[in-house]
Specification:
8 helices, mainly alpha
Length: 165
Amino acid sequence: MESSSGISKKTVRRVLSVALILWGGRLLYRLIGAGYEGFGSAIFAMAAWLFACILLYPDVARFPVAVLHRLIDSIYLPGSGDAPPLDYRLANYLRDAGKLQRAVNEYMKIAHHYPQEFTAYREAIAICLQCEDVAAARAIYKKALRKLNASDARLELRRHYESLL
């Protein structure tokens, strides 16, 4: 991993880290006898040393950065981190294998994590009606109507449900 000038990234990191440590030390040295006026310099010096440590040992910074990312995601993107990736393969496999109750459960898990996912409700209702469990199909249908925000999806689900009855 060398740049076009032949200097590796590790060397650049080390040189920059040493420069930051020296600059931070210089700021702290100026604090001697400065009193409260040097408080800003102390903050900058500590930040410089912290940044130098992160540059020297990037593995140490991965954990706090990951925690910070999760915190920011939980504040600005609630619910985005706890949902598994959308995947219908298991539910479709169970349906094709004839394990219909487990397939319905999988489709409902998808609907739980992705309440706006029209296909999960549609497939679960179709399987329930195929098993002649009209009560379960009706319960899923009512739940889907409550959860789906898009009027197009609700209308499509209504048409699908009526066509299956």
